[in-house]
Amino acid sequence: MSMPPLRMQHWLLFVVIAVAFFAWGGWLMYGRSVPESLPGMARWQKEIVSPMAEGTLTLGRLNAVNTGELWLKPRLDGPQLLFRSRLGSMGEQWKLEAVLVLTEQEHTSLMKATGLKPTDPEQPLSSHMLGELSGHGLSALMLRPEQPVAQDQIVATFGPPRLRLQLNSGEGWVYPAQGLTVHVENGALLLLHVVPRSSLKQ
User: Fold this and answer.
1) Are the C-beta atoms of 67 and 87 separated by less than 8 Å?
2) What is the pLDDT of residue 10?
3) Residue 6 clears pLDDT 60, i.e. is over it
4) Least CB-packed of 34, 127, 183, 195 within 10 Å?
5) Is the pLDDT score of 61 beyond 70?
6) Domain segments of the chain: what residues?
7) How many CB atoms lie within 10 A of CB 191?
């Protein structure tokens, strides 16, 4: 027995269902998979990350962005002077740590002035030293998120990495032009590490 011919309204119904189906499928595939960039990173790139990559970021300039503290960290291979602070944007918090560039004479005088031994625990320094050392440059800057950050947000912010390195735990993503190395593990960001780009092999 032959089927009755389809009426125009039936064809229109099929078209509407097909369009709705494909639109829904496209939304599932793309609508939910577009990651957001890191909140606040556009401003921090301008004020912190880019100057750090260019080798022009100083302690005073970093402290003006967000006030922090100086810590002396004794080490067997020589003490480190660290600047520590916290950054926040849209409810997300980051721990910031930067390593100051010091001469051997400054290393020696700091250890002598504080009386610390290489095996002693680190300690905070007085706030007036921030002003005294404000013109010092920085050799490295680290940002650690205090909340889960998906690695897809890194790609959305900085683009795909130029190089991926296998680490003992996770991967290291290298962005030489930005002086940036990213440590990711199990799909999450652990650390952003920024140095002057001249210290990274192109």
Assistant:
1) no
2) 52
3) no
4) 34
5) yes
6) 41-199
7) 16
pLDDT, residue 106, reads: 87
Token couple for 46? 């301008």
> Average per-residue pLDDT in the chain?
85
- Which tokens belong to 170? 């996770």
| Element housing 72 (H / E) | strand 69-73
For the entire predicted model, the pTM comes to 0.80
**Residue whose token pair is 């998120």:** 145
Spatial neighbors of 88 by CB under 8 A, at least 6 apart, are: 40, 94
Single-letter code of the amino acid located at 35: P
Cα distances (angstroms) measured from residue 183 to each of 118, 134, 166, 187 = 28, 29, 10, 10
Give the span between the Cα atoms of 107 and 129, in whole angstroms: 14
Closest by CA to 102, choosing from 69, 70, 67, is: 70
Q: At residue 20, does pLDDT exceed 50? A: no
C-alpha–C-alpha distance, residues 100 and 81, integer Å: 6
Q: Read off the pLDDT band of 13 (50, 70, 90).
A: low
Mean pLDDT, residues 50-70: 96
More confident residue, 89 or 135: 135
**Alpha-carbon dihedral angle through residues 102, 104, 107, 109, given to the nearest 10 degrees:** -120
Tell me which residue of 73, 198, 66, 77 sits closest to 143, measured CA to CA. Answer: 66
Q: How many residues does the chain have?
A: 202
Number of neighbouring beta carbons within 10 Å of residue 96:
20
Question: Residue 157 in contact with residue 38, Cβ under 8 Å?
Answer: yes
